Every structure is written in structure tokens, then in C-alpha cells.
Amino acid sequence: MLATTIDTTQQDAEPRVVSVADARAAIAACMLGDEPQQLRIGDITLHPHQRSAVARIKRTISEHGGALLCDDVGLGKTYVALAVGARYQAVTVIAPASLTDMWLHALAATHVRAEFVTAESLGRTGPPVRRRDLIIVDEAHNFRNTCTRRYSALARLCILSRVLLLSATPLHNSHDDVAALAALFIGSRAYTMTGAEFLPLMVRRDSAAHAGAGNIPVVEHAPPVVIATDATILDMILALPPPVPPSDGGVATRLVMHGLVRQWVSSNAALVGALKRRIARSHGLLASLDTGRYPTAAELSAWMYSDDAVQLAFAELLVPATAPLAALGSALREHVSALDALLVHARTIDDQVLAGFVRHVVRTHPAEKVVAFSCYAETAEAIYRLVKRDGHAALLTARGAMIASGPVSRAEVLAQFAPEGRHDRLDNHATINFLVATDLLSEGVNLQEASVVIHLDLPWTAARVEQRIGRLARMGSRHHRVMSYTVSPSPRAEMFLHELEIIARKSDFAAHMFGHSTITNLSARPNDRATIQRGERVRATIEKWRRTDLDVLDPASSSRVVALARAARAATLGVWIVDGSATLLAWDEVSGLTDDAHAVEAATDLADRAEAAEGTEDAAFRHEIATRLSLVLQSADSWYQQRCAWHALGAPDGSATIPGVHDARRALARVADAASANANFARRAHFAAIATRLRSAATKPLPLAVEWSLETLSDSPDEAAVDTILELVDRARRFPDQVREKGIRLAALIFMSPERLP
Description:
By secondary structure, the protein is of the alpha/beta class.
């Protein structure tokens, strides 16, 4: 049975009865802490919402060893992260290689010293050997796959370093995307956490709430547009004979069709490019089959395809001989013949209709810069070829940048779309008003000079659409709004692809967790406010209660304040110090104490509108407070014990099926039992102390990489191994920076009642 851990001295201590206004101020003081009125790092002055984020992240890292900064695209996460990093000596920034210039510019502007490491290099060379005080990971959603080498390398870095993860779109497909990031510093229990439990680890504000602050434009969506296409193409794709896979692959007829239809929906140019690559690969396979050899996928890579030419290797030298494969060869020839016919027909069609839509959008916004995005380089190149004669157009893909006069640098193109860009880098004839690009530009660049975005096709995830829009709808824009245009698949193609359905489902799932999506025009249904959004809304309400003229309550002290107020209905709102952290909880006589987001939001709204009660000095009034307070304290004791029991249980057995997630608590408990069982009589007390430390460690969150190490332990490790384990655990859990108190104590409480109070 768990021991009672509530501060029982509060049962007898006399509360300090204050007005409802003072109680609200006390709650704000506990929940928000001190926040600088101004904050400047280097040449950059932070906006109010950025200063608030810095203060919150510092507290979160101090308590948990890490934090997630998941503000919407365009709210200035880079400078918030560097303001946090300014307090540390050894800082490493990890980001995609494409963001190198942006981060080097930000480091120079803020005068923060940090090393820069590309995310791609982690997968090749592993983590840097040097120990770091803080690791900042930009576009952290790129690390959501726990099976990759780069994730393992980052997890090992996080054992001995604080970590700040930046991502406007942490959730791409499922809850596990966010859990994989949080697990880097709190371990595998992140996979069992709800939205309410993620809230203390995360800062997540949406741009709509801060529109106007820092010149953040509002996003407006035009209805999706369907471009007329040749339906014969779709019929020919769906009628393709089954493909012949490599010897180590399976037949994936529908997958091949799905890919071709998706590229056709983007543009005829994308379909032609895909067909040529598929035909070239099929010819390579056919050449091998004709020699009686059946290659694997890796062996097929020996056939090179470039600029419409197929270069065949010697099949006899590359692939071991097998039995005659005439039947496979016949099937493959039939498949290739159908692909050839499809290619011939596709080449008779151009993308003038799509280009006409692009021209229409550009002409609708004659004085504005327009950016068009596509998933495929062939689509971007085709549109550029068709509109470049209109003037002031540019193309940007992985191959480089292009304007009408020829190749230019990527930096020269981007400079014309950045708010502080030097537009004089190109001559007047090369001024760019329209840019078509691949999703290479959908992360980490500033395109605030543009105010119109066109989605030439739809990516797989709603998060990618948000990233595209976020390149324009950013802090520092001189525009009041950003217009978004979307090209949607035809009804027949959508019935096959389900693109809109998939994006809407992922958008709705993200909105259910985070409460905001910039692509609401594609969503299947409106969303209620999510848990995390409710938490941010509560915080915004409490911000209004902050007072600097009165020292109502020292959050570090054991004092407490209580107020009784008139409201529309009965409710109770209080801030409690739970294991050293200020936590907002609601209470009623039926449900008891709860951290449910809906209940806390409702109680906060009532407290915001509550009126002062009369007769606060009367004995009857104080008796009413004492009676209610006794019930709340009893409920708090029960709530805290249930919370401790839940955390002691850790992740359920089902989490073992998640790749890379292990039950460290079970491993530590097993080692503790082995240490006690193997001890002789003379050293039993010594090993009992070790077992106690191990069991204590099993009740605390550990970084995921530590859990991986513990999973490899034998059932009966020797004493040296146990010492190594304890050292690893102790070093990994040197966070938080301050020793946190255990238990739960009341700091401030507001009782609300619709009835006439004594």
C-alpha cells in the first residue's frame, strides 16, 4: 500500500483568506512564474509570445531534462531556442542540411555560440563524441522513426544532455510520432501518455491566436480546384497487366497503379517521368530474364537510367544463373508493352490546363509574390517551362535554381522572398514574382515577401501542407493575409487514391491532439478544441490575472491562499505543487480532484468571471471555507496516490511491440532482485542498499537510450555491472537542475458557488 504523501500539515494550517482577485493573481504567480518584460539576445528583440515561451521552456527543461517547442510555423521558434541556449556553455544545433545557412545566420544575429551538426550526418557518422549541455533539434519530426540510425544516434546524445526539440508539425501520422520525440528524454512511458500528460512537456501556440502580433498574417483558403484531365490515362493505368517484381520482392500491382495515378494527378510531366523510369527498370529486369537469371532489387540497381537512355550492365556477371524464366519474361513483356502504349499517349498531352490555372492565380494577385509547391520535380519543371515567358518567374528544385536568362544561385532566388532580402542582387529584368518549387522549400526557409501559395498537388500528410503555408504565413510579414489555393484530384482519381480522405483524417487526428490546423478547408469535419489547445487557452486566461503590484504568494513557500466567490455554477479551481511542479486542477463533490482538460478549462472560465463574495470576515464564511477545504484536501490525497500508482506501473506490456521501446522498470527490478538474492550474509546490507537504489530508479523516467542499455542486462549481473548501471542511471537523471520536492500541497484555491454565501 502506498504511503500518504500529501503534506498533512496543511490539514491543520490556517489558510490565508483573500479576495477572488488576489487568489487569481496567486494562481498566475504559481503557474506562470517570473517572465522578463523585455528580452534581447544579440541583435534580436523577442516578442511577448516568444518571451513567454523562453520562460516556459527553461522551467520544463529544468524539471524534465527536455522540452518540445511546437508552436505553429512562423512564430519564431528559432530565436526562442537560441534565447534558451544562451544560458548554456556547450550547445549543439542539429537540423537538416538545407537549413544550414538559416541557422548560421540566426547564430550570428543572436551572438550565441553553438556547433552545427546536420541531421543527415547523424545517420552516417553517429553522434559527436563531445558532451553537450544542450542539444537543439530543429524539424524534430524528421526523427519520429525510431528504427533509423539517426534516431539511435540522437537518443544516445540525449542520455547526458538536455534537449530542446523544435517542430511545428510533430504529428504526421499517429500519436507515436510525438511519443517518439518525448521518449528521447522521458523514456518509453511517452507511448502511454495522453494529450493532457504531454502538456507539461510542450509549448504549442497557434498562429491564429497571435495574428497581428509580430506581423503574422491570417491564412485564407480558396475552395479546392479540380483541373480537367484526360480520363483515358486513368483507364489505361488501371488496365495495366500485373508487373513482375525482382526476385526478392512481391507483386504489388495496386501499389504500382497507385504511384502512377498519383503522379498523373500531379501533372502529365510527372507521369511521363515515372513511366520512363519504370520502363527502363523493366528493360533491365527483362535483359536478365532473357539470360535465364532473376535479379534482386539491389542487383537491378546496376542498370543506370539517365536522360532517356538505358545503360545495361552485363547480366551474366551480376546475377547468378537460375532455371529458365520464360513465363516471367512473357509477363514482363506484356507489362512493358502496356507501359509503352501509356507513355506514347501521355506524351501527346501537355500541362497547359494546370499552367492556365497558375496564370489565373498570378493575375488575380498582380501586385503580390506567388509561390507554387509540388511533390515532383517534373511537375515544377513543366509549369516553369510553360509560364516562364510570362516573365518574372523562377524554378527551384534539388537540381538548382533557374530564371529565364539561365541558372542562378539558390540564395539569389530566396533573397527576393525573404523580408530582409536584398532585391538588388538580380537586375530589374530578373525580378521574381512567381516561384515554383518542390517540397525542398517546405521547411526552414523564410518566404514572407510572398502572400499567395499554390499547392499544385497534395503530399501524403497534412503536416507537409501546413509546412508549405508556413513558409509565407510567418512573423515579420508585411501582409495581413496569405491566400492558399489547392489543386484537388478529380472525383474518379480521388475514389482510387483517397488523397483528400487521408489528408483530412491525418489533419483531424492532429487537430484532435493539438487543436489547430491551417488546412481546415480539406478537413472532413470541424474539430472540438483539443487537450493541448485547451491548456493553451487556459494559460492565456491566466496571463490576464498576472499582477506585479502585489506580492500575493511566494510559490516556493508552504503558504496557501483561499478565496470564496460568486459564479454561474458551483466549481473549484486550484493550483497545486505536485512533485515540485505547479499544476492546475479542478474539483467538485462528484468527480473529486481532476486534471481533465475540459474540467480545468471550464473552471478557469468561471473563475475569470467570478465576482467577489460578501462577508469575508464573518465566522460563518470562514467555517464554509474550512469545510470545503477539508473535502478538497482529502480528495487531493486520493488523487495523488492514484497518480503515483499509475506512474509506478509504467508502460503496459503492449508497449514492448513498439520498435525500440523496452521496459526499463522491469529490467531494473530484475537486477535489484538478483542483487539481493546473490548477496552473502556479510554483504546483504550492502546489496540491500543497492537494490533500494535500483528500485527507486525504476520509478523515475529515464531517457530512451538508457532503457535500451538496461534491456541488455543479464538476469544476474556481477557487482561491477551493477555499479555501472547505477552510475549510468545517476548520470542520466542528474536532471532536473534543482532538487524537486515530493508529494502534493495546495498553493491557491478559488471556491465558486451560485448560491448566496454566508
